Amino acid sequence: MSSEGKTVWITGASSGIGAALAREWARRGARIILSGRDEGRLDEVASSIDTDTLVLPFDVRDEDAVHQATDKAVEWRNGVDVFVANAGISQRSPAVDTAMQVYRDIIDVDLTAQIAATQALLPHIARRKSGNLLFISSIAGKVGVPMRTAYCAAKFGLIGYADALRAELSQSGIQVHVVCPGSVATEVSRNALTADGTARGRSDKVIDNGIAPADAAKRIVDAVELNQREIIVAEGMEEAMGELRRTPDQLLDQVAGMVANGYMEKMQAED
Asked: Is the full-model pTM beyond 0.90?
């Protein structure tokens, strides 16, 4: 896939990996739609990009706003070619101390809202019979990491949704990618929720010393252009853990083969 002339829509685009992806895709000649809750920060990202850009602020937890934003994105510049489900929030608290509302809030943002945004766009992508859907999960979506039980639950779930969706779309010309970053030098730890739902307010040394967002973005876009289905962006022990839990291409091919052989049609015929 070449990024030249594509329209790329990124949620969670006001900072971190989302903003870095916007800059990287813009550098490669793509048009960019920037979404997030903070319009001012989105405007700052837009001002740093030398390409055709649409700022489309909304809260991913508001399904009405999601559908309204989707209509605007689809109408802009002949539709969406690449969608990046990147909005998310992390956690730093032991399960025994964590309020149930923290689980609800993290799963709502990191999983349910990402599914809702994808589902809103899916009819448009399906009609076009081309495009790329990109889900930003985590190494913590492959390996259960202490102090992140809610975050792991959401990120594991996002991979499950993406893998099943990829199989369903495998005969359609639509590519589905899962990205599993390790430690990237963003505000993810500072913004993480603690046991009572308040923001942690401080970062981790491993995050501060992590991969630069621009480097992570380059690795991600390189892999998308090569149509890699599962993209691990990590170093050291985190990379080793991710590779150990990587889904084999043969298994992804096997599930896609079920669809090619009429699995979905047979299931629907039985209903």
From this structure: yes
